[in-house]
Design goal:
CATH topology: Porin
Strand order of the largest sheet: 2-3-4-5-6-7-8-9-10-11-12-13-14-15-16-17
Helix content: under 10%
Strand content: over 45%
CATH superfamily: Porin
CATH architecture: Beta Barrel
Mean pLDDT: 88
Low-confidence stretches: 13-17, 115-123, 196-203
Order of helices and strands: HEEEEEEHEEEEEEEEEEE
Radius of gyration: 30 Å
């Protein structure tokens, strides 16, 4: 055997061994292509597609700290603080029946005055609430949301203490339909649970739902609207009308409410109303970062509430808002109350 034959034989043996080992080796699967998050701008800023679906998701929230002296709602003196966190989850997708949306809002509050360790009236300083959870399809809404009676024609001014004189209920279960004509005109009708259908909830049982309806025109510069609500439990209700507009940097509104029975309160008209209530306010946008607001409300029961504030946004997403308020409780209680507060809020 010559050297050439020996080398050829060795090479063949090595090739055979290598081939056998290769046959036993585990071959790694090809990695699947990475799917990056896609922006979904069809429903507004902040939405993105949930990977693998055609559903758009938006995640947001805010953290807020309030410090105040004097409670203009009940006349209490003293200092009060509250820290709040809110988480927002919104989904949206297109269907042959219109946009399908969901909305979830969870709220967490910490208020040391709610701690009964010092003899307070509540069990815990921390309070957790679900304040929004609803499904929307086209113009229909079902679930938990602010009453359209309060929100459809607008809240009572760009101030914190806007409801010292109440202008309606807020979070509640409902079934609602909103018709949008597309030219500034819209209307709604809603059936609301008054929260007294469960035996575990104090108060008289309700035989039926409460009903509200409204109509408005809003072209972005001028608006006028009318809403009404009927409280089935007491067989009374209320009507509110509002007009408002924007004139350059100036904005203004006036809103009035009428109680069908001024001698008693119902879900849509507070005891502080009497027969009627009025709200009015103006705002002025000095710069992109600074706005000032004033709101005044007055009722047939001679209750007067006034508030003024400045909203300063030094950087995007951060709000610093000092506010002063005054309430004269009129015929509903003795005396009056001044209050002042400051709010710091980060929204994301």
């Amino acid at each position: 055997m010559n050297i050439k034959s020996l080398l050829l034989g060795s090479a063949a043996a090595l090739a055979a061994v290598s081939g056998a080992q290769a046959a036993d080796a585990i071959v790694a699967a090809e990695p699947e292509p990475m799917e990056y998050v896609r922006v979904c701008d069809a429903f507004g800023t902040g939405y993105f597609y949930i990977p693998g679906t055609e559903t758009c998701l938006k995640v947001g929230g805010r953290v807020r700290f309030d410090a105040k002296y004097g409670d203009v709602y009940n006349g209490d003196d003293g200092t009060f603080t509250n820290t709040r966190a809110e988480i927002y989850l919104n989904t949206a997708s297109d269907t042959e029946w219109g946009a399908l949306k969901t909305n979830i809002v969870a709220r967490f509050d910490y208020n040391p005055h709610n701690d009964d360790s010092n003899g307070g009236a509540f069990n815990d300083a921390t309070r957790t609430r679900l304040i929004g959870a609803n499904i929307q399809l086209g113009g229909f809404l079902v679930g938990l949301a602010d009453s359209y009676y309060s929100s459809f024609i607008g809240y009572a001014g760009d101030v914190i203490n806007d409801d010292v004189i109440s202008y309606g209920p807020f979070e509640l279960n409902q079934v609602a339909y909103v018709f949008d004509a597309g030219n500034g005109f819209s209307a709604y009708v809603a059936a609301e649970d008054d929260g007294q259908n469960d035996d575990d909830i104090p108060g008289p049982a309700s035989d039926w739902v409460d009903v509200t309806a409204g109509v408005k025109f809003d072209n972005g510069t001028f608006m006028a609207g009318l809403v009404g609500g009927y409280d089935e439990s007491v067989e009374e209700g209320a009507i509110k009308a509002r007009i408002g507009g924007k004139f350059g940097a100036l904005s203004a509104f006036i809103m009035g409410g009428w109680n069908t029975d001024g001698d008693s309160a119902n879900k849509y008209a507070a005891a502080t109303w009497g027969d009627w209530a009025l709200w009015g306010g103006v705002g002025y946008q000095f710069t992109d970062a600074v706005k000032a607001n004033i709101q005044v409300a007055y009722t047939d029961e001679e209750v007067l509430a006034a508030t003024a504030n400045v909203k300063w946004t030094p950087v995007s997403g951060l709000l610093i808002q000092p506010e002063i308020s005054y309430t004269d409780f009129g015929n509903t209680a003795d005396g009056d109350q001044f209050g002042g507060m400051i709010r710091l809020q980060r929204t994301f």
